[in-house]
Design brief:
10 helices, about 270 residues
């Protein structure tokens, strides 16, 4: 994450890109895993103008850096490389869009790519899904992930990773003020229609009543949230961490030390 911040702090590494109406508009739903990205996608994807494409790996592969290393090479400084990345991505989502004008890319760890997204796709909608930090981390800790999530299985390490995520999102907001929309998980489950209507407004789309029937969709969800998105909206996971506060102290200490959670709020 420090190397990513350095890349975007060293001038303007990516040239300005045009808006091409011949391709669908990407909606990037991103954030920490277990923060509500799947629920947000299922709700938005129930709109007739939006195709939910799931967790696409196109962008990280095109940019060619992984979660474990990021080396700035000569190609990353060449404008033609970024034009190629942009066109290849748009062509890829166009092929799976089913002719919908909007396509959701719900890769949570695209929070690492916010800067690339904002520069490559100036028309894209970026929906970030912040959640109560302790609840989010507990949900991660309980999950049995497929793929590479080495930070997820130790409470102290998980807190440290969450702090890095928090720092990177603060950096993106500083770089692109007002261009990343926060859709808070607690608001989403507490007032679903208001939360989704606001995102639809960013897309100039009207509300459709079928959206609240998202749990009846037979679309395959290949994430740890598969069971949850087959149920109507529920809020039982909000602040559920308080039952385990004693056991979660290694995590809580890191979040308090990093000024992400205020100690005085824990007793409330």
């Amino acid at each position: 994450h420090a190397r990513i911040r350095s890349f975007f702090s060293s001038g303007d590494p990516i040239p300005a890109m045009p808006i091409d109406p011949d391709f669908p508009t990407p909606i990037f739903v991103l954030g920490m895993p277990r923060s509500g990205t799947s629920l947000t996608e299922q709700l938005l994807g129930s709109h007739s103008a939006i195709h939910p494409a799931g967790e696409l790996g196109y962008l990280p592969k095109l940019i060619k850096y992984g979660h474990r290393e990021f080396e700035v090479t000569r190609k990353h400084r060449e404008p033609q490389y970024w034009h190629w990345v942009r066109e290849a991505y748009l062509k890829s989502i166009s092929m799976i869009s089913e002719n919908a004008p909007f396509v959701i890319d719900k890769m949570p760890h695209n929070f690492q790519h916010d800067g690339f997204i904002r520069k490559l796709f100036p028309h894209a909608i970026i929906v970030h899904t912040p959640r109560d930090p302790i609840s989010n981390c507990l949900s991660i800790f309980k999950a049995n992930f497929a793929g590479y999530h080495p930070y997820a299985y130790n409470l102290e390490v998980l807190g440290q990773y969450y702090a890095e995520y928090h720092r990177l999102m603060a950096f993106w907001r500083q770089c692109f003020p007002g261009e990343i929309y926060d859709s808070n998980y607690e608001h989403l489950v507490g007032d679903t229609r208001s939360a989704i209507e606001h995102i639809l407004g960013l897309c100039n789309l009207e509300w459709e009543d079928d959206i609240l029937n998202f749990h009846e969709s037979d679309r395959i969800v290949r994430t740890a949230s598969n069971d949850q998105v087959r149920q109507p909206i529920y809020a039982s996971s909000v602040a559920s961490w308080k039952k385990y506060e004693k056991q979660l102290q290694p995590l809580i200490k890191v979040l308090v030390d990093e000024n992400i959670v205020a100690r005085e709020t824990l007793a409330s």
